[in-house]
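Q: Got a minute? One more chain.
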Amino acid sequence: MTSDRHHSGAPWRNFYGRFKGKALRPAQEAYLEEDLAGLSPGAVDWESNPEREPLELDGLFGDKPLWLEIGFGGGEHLVHQARNNPDIGLIGCEPYINGVAMLLGKIREAGVDNLRVHPGDVRDLFDVLPEASVARAFLLYPDPWPKKRHHRRRFVTPEHLEPLARVMRPGAILRVATDIPDYVRQTLEQVPAHGFDWLAERPADWREPWNDWLSTRYEQKALREGRVPHYLTFRRR
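A: Always. Here it is, folded:
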């Protein structure tokens, strides 16, 4: 075993976000205890899948196309997409356990059954998703890491975009929403460099939300504070 690996065999990967915030309510603790295991997409963690065998997606969703939301926050957009697209299978990935608990409550309320949840680092999920398996991915208001010295922590860096490109099928759509101008800059520099084409043809294509968009709590806060959302759409080459 090398020194740059966890005892499970997993590579040491720096993670800079939060795993947990304020104390969970009893109902949220119950959601995690009663519902989370049943919504697992399969063996993602290194302890249960040290060989990094690909997930059996047919067993999850049959022949439904797979969509992926990276960092779903409180889960409102993810549940919205699941409810409105019953012919699609969705996996949401979020390491912040408070957000996971919020999502589980929304899933109970909505009664959707075409959604699975990975409560951890999306890079571990990328390891076990089959190549060219994802038809659509969402990156909505990711952590902006505004300080210049922290820009390497952003999602729109090779460490994340290279495996994302691997798991997305040709023609697949990537949606990115952010209210941070410098994040827009880095996204437009890095995403096309990793196998995607930006689909904008006119200003409305990045100034107006998508037709099936559900504005999140974060976006509403940004709007109240005078920040301007950008809606960027890319297609995998």
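A: The CA atoms of residues 35 and 229 lie 34 Å apart.
Q: Perfect, thanks.
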